[in-house]
From TrEMBL:
UniProt keyword Plastid present: no
Record SUPFAM superfamilies: NAD(P)-binding Rossmann-fold domains
Database matches in PANTHER family: NADB-LER2, SHORT-CHAIN DEHYDROGENASE/REDUCTASE
Aminoacyl-tRNA synthetase recorded as keyword: no
Organism of derivation: Acrobeloides nanus
InterPro entries: Fungal_SecMetab_SDRs, NAD(P)-bd_dom_sf, SDR_fam
GO cellular component annotations of the record: cytoplasm
Family: Belongs to the short-chain dehydrogenases/reductases (SDR) family.
Name under which the protein is recorded: Uncharacterized protein
GO molecular function: oxidoreductase activity
Coiled coil residues, start to end: none
Record keywords: NADP, Oxidoreductase
One Pfam family of this chain: adh_short
Length: 210
């Protein structure tokens, strides 16, 4: 059974990979009128900009999920676009990092660990908190309100394989990525319990080599 998405969608980490793919697919839906494609890394944004030129419903918003000021600035920008009684129907937390070096059991680097946890775990926590009012507005208007946190099987103690990741440079291990997604899963459950009017889920969409 198809569930309505609603008019207004926000995707973090939308400049490449899974995030960009989501923006392109969501743009095909007639009911979706505003797609806020949020990015942080200016280096790989050309494809998103090219797509925006072809799709007027896409709005490119700068948003660093590790920076509270950036989150609030993005919120204000989106409110200005949507106008009074703004509502958000779908928030997809896709922004994440997966780095090499200083992320193993034998050679942990505190800053590298904290950077993963700050981006992959705390980032969605802070973004969701900032946009809760807009999501609640959607429910008050009898509109859909959903939060999708992009997680990973690596965040599962039962199903996480612990096998090395594969990159263009070769294979590597990163234990803090799974730790960060495990924390995200725990948070998602708490979010669903404490905000029952909003559908909140964590999903693993699969591996993207882009």
């Amino acid at each position: 059974m198809y569930q309505k998405i609603g008019s207004n969608v926000l995707v973090t980490g939308a400049n490449r990979g899974i995030g960009l793919g989501l923006v392109k697919e969501l743009s095909k839906l007639e009911e979706v009128q505003h797609i806020f494609a949020c990015f942080y890394n200016q280096v790989k944004i050309e494809e998103l900009k090219t797509f925006q030129e072809q799709c007027p419903k896409v709005y490119i918003i700068e948003l660093d999920v590790t920076n509270d000021e950036s989150i609030q600035k993005a919120l204000s920008e989106i409110r200005n676009i949507l106008g009074e009684n703004s509502s958000l129907n779908l928030l997809i937390n896709n922004a994440a990092i997966l780095e090499q070096g200083g992320v193993t059991v034998q050679e942990p680097n505190r800053e590298n660990f904290l950077r993963h946890l700050n981006t992959n775990s705390l980032g969605p926590v802070m973004v969701n908190a900032a946009f809760l009012t807009l999501l609640r507005n959607a429910t008050s208007l009898n509109q859909p309100a959903k939060i999708v946190n992009i997680s990973s099987l690596n965040g599962s103690i039962e199903k996480g394989s612990g096998t090395p990741f594969i990159s263009a440079e070769g294979s590597f291990k990163n234990i803090v990525y799974g730790m960060s997604k495990c924390a995200l899963n725990h948070y998602t459950k708490a979010l669903a319990q404490e905000e029952p009017s909003i559908i909140s889920i964590a999903i693993c969409p699969g591996w993207d080599h882009l």
